[in-house]
Write a structure and sequence with these properties.
The complex is a heterodimer of chains A (268) and B (206). Chain A is mostly helical. Chain A is built from 10 helices and no strands. Helices cover 75% and strands 0% of the residues of chain A. Chain B has 206 residues and is α/β, with parallel strands linked by helices.
Chain lengths: 268, 206
């Protein structure tokens, strides 16, 4: 089977639907039409740019370019994790904890998958490496952001309890154990739910894409299973690591709770 | 006589530098306007806030002890005690003497069964009395009491005063007691340390 190529006219027809929706919300004074049109325009521009970049990358498949692309993706994901925190760590830690744990988990899992499971030649073949890394980073990013946000919020709220436990002679790890467990749970829940509902509630996007591109459904399913396991591992290890590092960072060497290491919450 | 607590040039962001010493068995009161730094002093001694200076307990420098060891020997009891479990006994040290527990519960007029009470149903006065008992079960050398009778009626206030006095005499421990109540100050007696804008005003050495 060959991929049916989409023409500019096909895309314009789809765009008309969005314009129609914007028109309807404008007419109903819902204040959504502007954001809809801007978001639509961003989709076109951003995806076309990425398409061009990927095309260039595939044409010049060199390890250096693939690594550069990967680092840019990591840097953006790290920023995104930081921006989603209500109370982020001050200084470099605000950016560092999420970025470093994503680097360790998402990169390690991607490389492992490329070398041992998918096995393209060379192992960093951009056609496999970039989409894999993208999916892992995207999910790990969400897990880490949720986990860190939950951790700092609950520690802030429960600071009297934590200090009471410290004052009674508990170590930092014991004093913060409940909050850490809760944070890890909220970071991992979306992934666990996605695995449990896969194929029943919705067909996962990657699998749908492969089927549309003409791959036999069973092949697409195998890839999807692989990806889901990789995502679960990357998100899980990344979230646990980030939550652990962050909870350690909330205490100093004398095991005092240091909320001054967090920025005050944003007023929204 | 050896000092129980020896503090030299204790300093935090809003406190000190100040010097302070306590003898075994001594109860000293801390007074001062609100915001003067009474609680900050207790928190710094418990090592809950970042602080600099030299602090020794029974001659041993604080920095030689693990934070956990320090806070078991130096018990900070705030006016509002915090509870995290469902039942009172979840908040007790991993190891403690049953006999001691019964003794101190009796001193603050609570039955043995109160250890199995649900935290949800405790009154603020019960919380305060149980908060003191759970701190004493670590057998601390120094008690840092931040208005430990703020939620109590006169009868229970006097019970707590007697219990703390009894503990100090029995264990040769010392206490710093923050109080706003003039009558209580007279009942407790002992040295009175006045804090003003983070500095000790009255002579603090003995």
């Amino acid at each position: 089977m060959d991929l049916i190529s989409l023409s500019a006219l096909d895309l314009s027809l789809a765009a008309l639907l969005v314009v129609a929706l914007a028109g309807l919300t404008f007419w109903a004074r819902m204040g959504l039409s502007r954001s809809l049109l801007i978001a639509g325009a961003r989709t076109v521009i951003q995806l076309l740019l990425v398409g061009l970049i990927l095309q260039t990358l595939f044409d010049n498949a060199q390890l250096g370019w693939v690594a550069l692309m990967a680092l840019v993706m990591l840097a953006v994901a790290g920023y995104e994790v930081m921006a989603r925190q209500q109370r982020r760590f001050v200084g470099l830690w605000g950016y560092g904890i999420g970025t470093v744990t994503m680097f360790i988990s998402a990169f390690a899992v991607t490389v492992l998958a490329l070398v041992t499971m998918v096995g393209p030649t060379p192992w960093w073949e951009p056609q496999y490496a970039i989409p894999l890394l993208g999916m892992l980073l995207g999910n790990t990013m969400t897990g880490i952001a949720l986990g860190l946000d939950r951790l700092t919020q609950t520690v802030w709220r429960e600071r009297r309890t934590i200090e009471a436990r410290l004052a009674l002679g508990s170590g930092w790890s014991e004093a913060v154990a409940t909050m850490r467990r809760e944070a890890a749970r909220s970071g991992l829940m979306p992934t666990i739910n996605a695995m449990a509902a896969a194929g029943i509630v919705s067909l996962p996007g990657m699998m749908t894409g492969q089927i549309l591109a003409g791959a036999p459904p069973v092949e697409a399913v195998k890839y999807q299973i692989l990806i889901m396991f990789l995502i679960a591992a990357g998100t899980g290890f990344g979230t646990l690591g980030a939550v652990w590092f962050a909870s350690r960072r909330l205490f100093d060497t004398r095991e005092r709770l240091r909320l001054d290491r967090l920025k005050a919450g944003r007023q929204t | 006589m050896d000092r129980l607590l020896d503090v030299h040039a204790l300093k935090t962001e809003h406190l000190g530098p100040l010097d302070l010493a306590l003898q075994p068995g001594e109860l000293a009161q801390v007074t001062g306007a609100s915001g003067s730094g009474k609680s900050l002093l207790l928190r710094a001694l418990a090592d809950l806030d970042p602080n600099a200076g030299e602090v020794r307990l029974q001659g041993e420098p604080r920095d030689n002890m693990l934070p956990v060891q320090w806070r078991r020997r130096v018990a900070y009891v705030p006016a509002e005690t915090a509870w995290w479990g469902e039942c009172v006994d979840e908040h007790l040290p991993a190891e403690f003497s049953r006999e001691q527990a019964l003794h101190w519960l009796d001193q603050v007029a609570l039955p043995e069964a109160s250890l199995r009470w649900e935290v949800e149903r405790l009154s603020s006065g019960e919380k305060q009395r149980l908060g003191l008992v759970r701190a004493l079960l670590n057998q601390p050398r120094l008690l840092l009491l931040d208005e430990p009778t703020a939620n109590l009626d006169l009868e229970n206030t006097k019970r707590i005063e007697r219990a703390v006095r009894g503990y100090l005499a029995e264990q040769d421990a010392a206490a710093l007691w923050v109080s706003h109540d003039t009558l209580q100050r007279q009942r407790l007696g002992g040295r009175i340390l006045t804090i003003h804008e983070g500095q000790l005003e009255s002579p603090a050495w003995t």
